[in-house]
Amino acid sequence: MPTPLPLLPGQLIDGRPVMLGVLGGGQLGRMFVHAAQALGYETVVLDPDRHSPAGRISHHFIEADYRDADALRELAARAAAITTEFENVPAEALAELARARPVAPAAGAVAIAQDRIREKAHFARCAERSGVAPAPYAVIESEADLADVPADLLPGILKTARLGYDGKGQARVATRGELAAAWRGMGGVACVLEQLLPLALECSVIVARGRDGQVVALPVQRNLHRGGILSVTEVYEGNVPRALASQAQAATVDIANQLGYVGVLCVEYFVLQDGRLVVNEMAPRPHNSGHYTVDACDASQFDLQVRTLAGLPLPQPRQHSAAIMLNLLGDLWFDAAGAPRTVPWPDVLALPGAHLHLYGKTEARRGRKMGHLTFTGPDAASVRERALAAAALLGIEAF
Ligand code: ATP
Ligand code: MG
User: What are the entry keywords (predicted)?
Assistant: First the structure.
């Protein structure tokens, strides 16, 4: 029999603390485990990698593929409720688990976020109310679609409908010839072609929505991407113009409401050079741009994930410190000549307001997210000064 919600901190089931489950053992799962354990829950993680960052700190770890039926049954048997940290987890696995246990987010919402075509259609519907539309785009599933592409979508960015992340599965194309070559190069899979927009800045908003429909929004994050990967997130008063921040928060709440979403959802936006806000994509889980909340807010995005999963109250979170987060990619573990180097952590940690988070990955590789470093302080000027000092020590380009 499924245990009814809420799953209370300290509650025992058959003499053991309530166990919460997570599909995916990456750094997001690891920080979910931290937040769940702080409230006294036990955790179970399912991931194919035996050295996964979350698996190595969880009470229980199931090493298996996301489609392994026996492993999913074991997860459902152990966990009182289940979430995901990995957006490409098969939606069918979530649907299967939901037959036995409360699952948040639901398979249907994850399936939409996994498919850029369905995601953009959802955004376009929401835009009729919020006024925040996606970039002009066309769906490309056949040679005929290629021929029909309106000229004003070029130059554009071709993106695979499924399985893209960190800029993978994308190509910039300037002409019809390049478009056709890029699409065929991607194996002719379903894609969207988006108009290449003149960006002034990028930002994101994270919301948490409970089963009762209550929604809380975190502050707007200003994000800098480099090489298709998030590099820096800045969150403080004035990081983006106030009117845009409110518009982005309202649009995100609407996107979550219209999905009937339960859990933590992040929506990424572009601010164009003419000041317009455009919605880019969503992640049905906590997001890299929300890691600062662990150190700078009175409830982190992972606390909110635990609360929405367990059915606990969702008071409006408050950011108590200005914050800048630097992503720590594996590149930092190598010197200019490509030889392994010792990262100067003592110098970095001598800076006031530094919060270092390493994910326990034993092998550094270029572009691999090894950890992040958040600076908190009383105001934007002080956190910028310290974050820039850390960036210089680490060899991260100034911002
Ligand atoms: P993520 O790691 O966020 O999942 P992704 O691979 O899904 O990334 P997008 O967020 O779609 O990719 O795009 C990656 C980056 O490429 C964006 O953050 C932005 O800098 C740039 N970009 C994407 N689409 C456009 C566009 N239509 N016009 C201009 N720049 C764009
Ligand atoms: Mg993105």
Answer: ATP-binding, Ligase, Nucleotide-binding, Purine biosynthesis
